[in-house]
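Teaching note: in complex prediction, the entire set of molecules is handled at once rather than each chain in isolation. The prompt given to students was simply: 'Predict the structure of this complex.' The entities are:
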Amino acid sequence: MSMNKTKLILLIVIIIVAIAIIVLGVILSFKIFSKKCEPLTPLALSRFEAASNERSEYGEKCEMSGDSYLLILEYNSSESAENAKKALELATSGEIENIEDDVVWINKDGNSSVFWTDKKLLAILVMPGQNEEDIVEEQLDKAFKKVENY
Amino acid sequence: MLKKLKIIGFILCFGVFICPFFIFALSEDVFPKTLNGVPLTSIEEEQPDEEIVSGYYADYENDTHFISVIFWQVKSTELAEEIKQSFFEELKVQYNELFERVDWQEPYSIEDNQSKVVFFTLYFSEVPIEAGAIITTIDEYVVVVQILDREDKPSIEELNNASKELIKNISNDDPGEEPNQPNMSDDCGDGNCQYWDGEDCKNCREDCYIDDFCCSLGYSYIYANDYHNSIYNIKEALGGLIPNGAIALRPGLSTEDLPLRSPSICKDGSISSGDCFSSYHCSNGVCMNNYCKKALAEEPEEVSQEMAEAIYEDQTNYKEEYVDAYYELEDSIIQMRVRDASLKVNLEVQGNTSGKVIKTNKGDEIEARLSIINDSDYSLALTAGIFYTQGFDLEEKKYTISFKWDGGLSSLVGSFKTKLINCKYIILSPGAELIVYSRVVPQETGYLDVQGLIFYNTEKKYQKWDARFLENAPPNYQETEVSDTILINEKPCSWWPICL
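The expected output is the structure of the full assembly:
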């Protein structure tokens, strides 16, 4: 008898969770994408500096869906951001394709990375295990919004 | 006159018959307006039946948290206990069916089996949602709290606090017990509680919920000395201070997450297992520094002033160079004050990101810095080192100790951690700073514990001494410890430098 009761409790919990998930998944999915960001440490920033010869004093890594993530690096000027973009593109090996003007998609062994700048910001969307155009573009739309609202 | 008596009689009857109803039945009042700072959004009443005397469920919601609460009074204490015992198993079965994937951690009991806790990650459209649930029973009451967190793993403290906040209401309804509300002062939560030292914890429960001493919000602490002496039976010693130091555990971690060194066990002054450096170290049940047996006592290299300065700069100057990033990092530095010796201790651990859980990838570098400043007006003998989880596959890249005092800079340059302990003590004069720096590359995934161990001696004879290295280690020492944890993930791809 008590087991039945336990199941009843669970039913309620499930309903609660289901509601929570709907709220989470549908209404706030944008928030999830936009909120899961962590600041890069000086150690990580120095790696970017070593690779690009441009110093960024602040950067974030934002988790996107699955294993994908967005790197946002802040530079002192749009020129620095542009230089860093070129240098980091060169350091990233793979097949290069221009999605739009100055939005560069690099594809290697089924992994994708997309580089673009927005004023003083350099954005790099890294999508391990992902190279289908539809998915990449879908992710990219979200990432664009994220960078615009940064 | 008769009329008056009737009225009094009526009031008395009301008092006797009606009041107990309010005292013992659950009501909506058991739900506070906010729970862990999250506002109440809905309450619903459960229909009573032969098993449920009364019950409610409630939701609390804000941008980051979704807390569901079930509060039931069932017909017997035994039934409540039975529900508690089978709850998580059933939860697991149900959730596994409902979601595309759920990663479960092992449930465990806290508070003398009064509560059971489980943490899990739900996947919804590939988006992971961190969650935790706690079920608590008190007599015939059952309280379930489930926290979904959109940003981080909920911590055991969050669950426990929420559960206690609700349970408190049961005892508040009891007329025999005075409600024990802490005085909430306006000064609470202003960031003063970054240290466990010097706060009025009793009035700042939100910041410092651990009795008798203050702590960073959400952190728990365990005794360093007990840690060494009862290493196989580690207990959640939340509270009490700790002149000899503490191990700080990040929010969301418990002592069960602590990767422990495997120590040597001593019995009656001799070693019953493992390797001790000498039986002298064997008096406390566990060899204090059993790892020293393997210390390859390389001679410390003599270094020039230039070299010393370069090392010191290498260890510290990023603080000026990466101003914004360092500002972010500061939040995740573990700070501690050793009270009986007036030492200011900082342990910084740097991976790729510095969120609430520091993260990096297998194959990427980690930097750890342990800084100790003598904040007193006398000198003391001290040595310190950075240690990692024993058995964790690591490649050591660099290990240096530098030492800054009024008279200048000096560095002891070493290649490996093990040489330090039992090698050289330093007389740390007032205001002087010792910095231990370590760079390693983890070669496996998982949580890596980074420990700063500090051995010191405040004997009178050292108090007037100038800065120098001691040829012989003092025969007695006190020990303190500060620790942090970093999560090592699998590298997501092979592109350098963008695969973080």
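Point out the following to students. Chain A has two domains: 1-35, 37-148. Confidence is low (pLDDT under 50) at residues 26-34 of chain A.
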